[in-house]
Amino acid sequence: MTARLRIEGVSVLFSGLRALDDVSFTVEPGTVHAVIGPNGAGKSSLLNTLCAIYPVTFGRILFGDREVTGLRPDRVAGLGIARTFQNIVVSQGESVFDNLMVGRHRLTRTGVIGAAFGLGRREERAQRERVREIAAFAGLSGKLDAPASRLSYGDLKRLEFARALCLEPRLLILDEPVAGMNEAESARLGELVSAARDALDLTIVFVEHDMGVVMSIADRVTVLNFGRVIADGTPEQVRRDPEVIGAYLGGDPARPAGLAGGESAPASELVADRLTEGPSS
Ligand SMILES: Nc1ncnc2c1ncn2[C@@H]1O[C@H](COP(=O)(O)OP(=O)(O)OP(=O)(O)O)[C@@H](O)[C@H]1O
After folding, report:
1. What is the reported pLDDT for 260?
2. Residues 204, 196 contacting (CB under 8 angstroms)
3. Residue 194 placed within a domain
4. What region holds the ABC transporter domain (predicted)?
5. Is position 259 within any domain?
């Protein structure tokens, strides 16, 4: 069973710089939750904090009734929290199948005693079967024997996603899952993320700059700017939020950049277009 993730008053300081400033929001179990914001808003810092790569300076993070704050990264993983990274991290020389098996080994309980009673081989068979199921789910069945180095960029990103699924996570954290993909590949991965939520009883938190994907797959969106939460709601709510409009377009939310006098189109329509295109950088 997945669980509710609560981020309560979290601040992260780097020698005086507040990467995160009193951030609070809740991720409901079984939802796809996007975290967006302009460059430098604190999105990566938040993901790193959720995985205990960055320590929390103030506040706390709870996953169900377990406090994540202060745990070592391997303990956080032990709670069923897995993540992917912005840059692809797979073994290029290994086959797709072997890359996926790496994700399973952490789950293998069989030790020396188990092996002595023949449990090792049975467990190994079960692990391999599960890897094939997950590969099929991710559309990688036909490529299990191919070395990762031969995959297209889109397939590599799906391999990374599938490998994270092999950890059987309860909470999956994705850092820019469709970065660098073309439109068709992005839409396909977006569908895969939604399907994973539905099929695997999974909660998903993701950071993404592709607003088309965010708006189509997120159940809820939290918007950060300068380390603070400036909006939290459904995709439709946040794309029409005046403060979000201000953060993405710069300047006065009532008179967004490029709109002289605001006479032709309401700011909400402009930002809706802009958020669909992606943030300015
Ligand atoms: N390890 C670190 N040491 C010092 N400062 C950091 C560190 N990590 C992040 N920061 C600072 O924290 C702020 C937020 O950065 P962060 O990378 O979290 O933003 P972001 O929203 O992910 O940006 P982008 O969209 O450009 O990736 C920035 O000012 C950044 O320089």
Report:
1. 28
2. yes
3. yes
4. 5-251
5. no
| C-alpha 227 to ligand 1 mean position (Å) | 9
Domain around 15: 1-80+169-245
pTM, 2 dp: 0.86
Instruction: Render 89-128 in DSSP notation, one character per residue.
Output: ---TTSBHHHHHHHHHHTT----HHHHHTTHHHHHHHHHH
Confidence band, pLDDT 50/70/90 cuts, at residue 281: very low
pLDDT in tens, 83-114: 987 777 788 899 999 999 987 776 665 544 55
> Average pLDDT over the chain, rounded to whole?
85
Of 168, 184, 206, the one marking the end of a domain is 168
Q: What is the model's pLDDT at position 132?
A: 96
- Rounded Cα–Cα distance for residues 75 and 59 (Å): 19
Residue 21's pLDDT is: 97
CA neighbor of 85 nearest in space, from 212, 224, 223, 180 = 180
CB 203 within 8 A of CB 30: yes
What was the ipTM of the complex prediction?
0.95
Pocket test for ligand 1, best of 17, 85, 86, 222 (most atoms within 8 A of CB): 17
Strands 171-175 and 5-14 turn out to be unpaired
In the structure, which protein residues have their CB atom closer than 6 angstroms to any atom of ligand 1? 14, 17, 19, 37, 39-45
Note whether residue 9 is domain-resident.
yes
Share of the chain above pLDDT 90, in %: 70
